[in-house]
Protein 1
Amino acid sequence: MICQSCGIEAPTKQVTFYQNIGALVVRFSQSVDGLLCKNCIHKNFWKMTLTTLVLGWWGIISLIVPPIFLLNNIFRYLFSLSMPPVPEQAVVPELTDDDRRKISPHVESLFHRLNEETADLTEIANEFATRIGVTPGQIVLAIREIALSSQAET
Ligand SMILES: [Zn+2]
């Protein structure tokens, strides 16, 4: 719903991509892990996969690691191809005071729902967004804001 890489409000998918750079004795690995939008999945897949393909192979461990990383990246990428693209009008969501006022009467029932065992953030955010007249991304922002401020108090 909110991309953890670029922050845009768009459909996201959980992905993990790995990159390996082999350098004879040492090797440098990196990974990206999170809920990403299709644009960021695309960008990270190509960057990390091409880097591993070109620079991944020097050193002994680096002969074993790159094929595993490459296979993982390719499978994850293939699974994400069917996801909906980032909408053209997609923006990074923001909360205005007006939105906060709209959301605040619903906060209690919102958190009540989130504490249910089968709670699904995406589903709940969509449901409340429709009911309140804001976007699901703004609901997620509001939840984050309230969670952070209650953390600061304790
Ligand atoms: Zn993104």
Note: Residues 61-80 form the longest helix (20 residues).
Protein 2
Amino acid sequence: MTAVRSRRERSKQLIDEYLLSEHQLAQMYYYMLLARRLNERMLALNRQGRAPFVIAGAGQEAAQVGAAMALKKGTDYVAPYYRDLGVNLVLGMDAREAMLNLLAKRDDPNSYGRQMPAHWGHRERRVVTQSSVVTTQFLHAAGIALAAKMRKDPIVVLASCGEGSTSRGDFHEALNFAAIHRLPVIFFVENNGYAISERTDKEMPLEHVADRARGYGMQSAVVDGLDAIATYQTVAPAVAQARNGGGPFLIEAKCYRLWPHSSDDDDTRYRTKKELQEWARKDPLKQFRQRVEDDHIFPPSELDEIEGRVEEEVRDAVEWAMQQPDPAPEDALGFVYKEL
Ligand SMILES: Cc1ncc(C[n+]2csc(CCOP(=O)(O)OP(=O)(O)O)c2C)c(N)n1
Ligand SMILES: [Mg+2]
């Protein structure tokens, strides 16, 4: 009895330390798992010839979900990048919508089937439509934040990209501008070790992307992006500070891309099986489950229940989305010109 009580007290204390409620922790696991299971089914559909292209976030779910959970949904803006399925799920995308996007269906709320898969966008959720050209979203984020500051609108913008993208000019211009004007932007970099086949040491002469912030007089942090709780704990105070006029923040989440760059990439040409196996052991989903089980936050049955729910949602989404209509050819120019 005493052991049970002290275990309960300890887990209560841990929840306080996590800065997340039990409900939020369960949601965190749900979103990470949903992102992974969706990506797995997407890749299977691609291999079956049913989906043209997949670019996944496997290995980056903890970074994405931890960061997105630190935002105010529907209030804060997000300028995400292609791997950010996890971010979009937190902001309200469901499994069915994710599959509509993959299959370029008429009712895909991101672009109504006009863009490639994983090119996100949603007006009500304040997800900014993105370009295939990497890092352009950082400039959009700085612009949105400038407008918010001028209107005295207490919002924050979270812009994300991969570490390879931080070597583009847009990244540096956006950081410089945001720092000069103390704009409420969180620049969130998911460092997954590669830009397609290029390792980070060939992308930049620094060990940490976060070190680039110093050149702009900006605050920065490095966080273990395989740890959703740590990511949340790092992003949440930066968001609060930015909202209160404290200026921008660069956060680098160290993670690893567990899958090839995309469904068109052969990663055996540039990395070894051994390297992959070592990182697979650190899989963020496994780590999260282990931690909340060890800390007695949830009994295994509750986590199994989440897994079952996710499996069911993904199964339903695939079946349902495949039955949905494709865009009509005569609608191809819709949303392009005001009038034809
Ligand atoms: C300006 C520009 N150059 C090249 C590409 C082709 N491209 C697409 S993704 C990518 C790699 C980006 O690497 P990183 O920023 O580390 O993101 P990751 O894919 O690793 O998540 C490249 C080179 C592009 N989309 N835009
Ligand atoms: Mg990368």
Note: The pocket of magnesium ion (ligand 2) is lined by residues 162-164, 192, 194-195 (CB under 6 Å).
